[in-house]
Please model this.
Amino acid sequence: MEIREITDKELRREWNRRFYLKPGAQLKSARDSVEHLRSLFSNVPRDQEHFGILLLNQQNQIIESIILFSGTINTSAVYPRELVKLVFKHEAASVLIAHTHPSGCTQPSSSDKAVTTKISKLLSNLDVELIDHLVLGNGVEEYFSFADHRML
Model:
């Protein structure tokens, strides 16, 4: 079989099989997180922003991975209250948040920075750590990590 004969659906299925981490899997790097999140976001429209959360235990093992909000081509409303409800429901010790940028540009906007600060402060007051906020572009290598850029 030649590569041209493989459908997008088959490629997406194989990507998910290789990179979607099941509950209990441990995140070891931003790269692990990005690959997992790409598989999480693989079945949603690419022309909309989507916001997801990884709820983690004390060993950074995944409890649950959820697409929490979806929006338009350049924005997704984020409601911290809904995020906190999930943290309590799953008794998460830490979280990693991420969202897509349909434009492909991974540079965080001023509103991305503001919501990160708001969520970080909120979680800190609840003794829950915000491990990272990832902004995902279109390519596999295209992402921005708030933690890697010391912005948390």
